[in-house]
């Protein structure tokens, strides 16, 4: 097998590291899917690979610097993912175009015209770790406690307003009386209809 094209197949999940052991591959196209995770470092074993297209996915983390050792690689596309960190400059990577990396705002280097500060890699790793940590609000107990607290605040807020604003209190009770009367009328009408239907 020398070529695999699985583009536009709605694939999801991480890229299997086993693909990196198909050493006879010359072309691999996984573009326009929903792949997540990082680019497998095992791809460095694909020394015969000439074309690798991973564009239009949801891949994250850094571009493995080991891929710069793939001397046969003439096409490398990772546009429109969530990649971060420094774009390798050595090897075949010096021959690629900026369009091959566009749509990854956290990538940096001369290729995309964004300077890389010292510790860029560490910063993005920290960001990824923070994003994967469970948030406090994700705890269902805290979530429902938060909702209950807001309901309590709203309820007692209304009570406080009615206690101190006499004109509002009068309007509130008049509106409540109208609502109760409307409900009673509706129930009475429904009861009459039911009795008529039963009588028939």
Automatic annotation (TrEMBL):
Keyword presence, Cell division: no
Keywords tagged on the record: Glycoprotein, Leucine-rich repeat, Membrane, Repeat, Transmembrane, Transmembrane helix
Transmembrane segments: 141-164
Organism: Acorus calamus
Protein name according to UniProt: Uncharacterized protein
Entry's Gene Ontology cellular component terms: membrane
Subcellular location: Membrane
Protein family per UniProt: Belongs to the RLP family.
InterPro entries (alphabetical): Leu-rich_rpt (IPR001611), LRR_dom_sf (IPR032675), RLP_Defense_Trigger (IPR051502)
Coiled-coil spans in chain: none
Membrane topology recorded in Swiss-Prot or TrEMBL: Single-pass membrane protein
UniProt KW Glycoprotein keyword: yes
Top-level taxon of the source organism: Eukaryota
